[in-house]
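Dear colleague,

Thank you for sharing your sequence with our group. We've completed the structure prediction you requested, and as agreed, I am returning the results in plain text so they can be pasted directly into your records. Please verify that the sequence below matches your submission; if there's any discrepancy, let me know and we will rerun it promptly.
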Amino acid sequence: MFEKQIKIPSAAEIIAERPVPAELAAIKRERDKLAIDVITGKSDKFLVIVGPCSAHESAPVLEYVRRLGKLNERVKDRLVLVPRIYTAKPRTKGVGYKGMFSQPDPEHKENTLKGIRTIRDLLLAAIEESGLSAADEMLYPENYAYVEDLISYVTIGARSSENQMHRLVASGVELPVGIKNPMSGSIPVLINSIYAAQSSQVFKYHDWQVRTGGNPYAHAVLRGRVDNYGNDIPNYHYETVMQVLESYRNTEGSLHNPAVIIDANHSNSGKRHRQQIRIVEEVLQNRTYDKDFRNIVKGVMIESFLVEGCQEHDTVFGKSITDPCLGWDDTERLLLELANRV
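Please find the predicted structure tokens below.
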């Protein structure tokens, strides 16, 4: 049984309520191009998707993004910073807090319509106050239409990368889409997901049959894997990256823009947030050691917030209520070091 609770306007109606001002749209287009140029190899800058595990409240996220915008002025010659504003949070068992999209106040009941409007306000304010447009995860493919004019990078998570609808919608996105390896860690499945996203597709999307042109900017994200006993197995090491490179080569040119982003948290770190610093260090070492590694590894993902760690309830301003994150001071040091070494 489905109990109807709140009628949700279409994406077009919501966007008309909260349109993007021309000056902010211009900033977003510029940021889109910066990220695309990294993935295509036109730019040798390093892409860094960095921010909270989940954006559970607007005020601390905006404070974080303002700081990131100021830091960007110091590193923009070498790094492309994309704030991570993830508004839908997947849960392993499918219950509990699911992110701002459905629950704009984590201490109150779900209200998707309020969540959508809150997200658009947040993403607009982030661009205006920092000059940076965000990354978000496409957890629910149909929801992408509500934010497509406001973000510059899209992630498809490990639990979604084998899902056909995620692959189909990714094929119509005109931005870099980072597709994470599935929970099993299968590289062939990951390559198949990228192939589907890069291919033209015909399918039902919202109220239309649509045809997409394929997304040449879809690429691999290595986030570690989980074995049959629930153990985290990292896959950011040199050997796995070379396997991904070989898999790209085995497609005989049918895939465009071979690229890998290393997710420094999740199963790569075992969610031990401070290990992200060491993992990024190893990525930098391998980029120095091997030209092929350097050419295919285009960036990293880092989970970071104002205050280190995590908390069960939203009591400490700027501290994650989901996975633990690096604090701001460590993040700033890490990004400055990255800029000096890439």
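Summary note from our side: The domain at 11-341 is CATH 3.20.20.70 (TIM Barrel).

Kind regards,
the structure core
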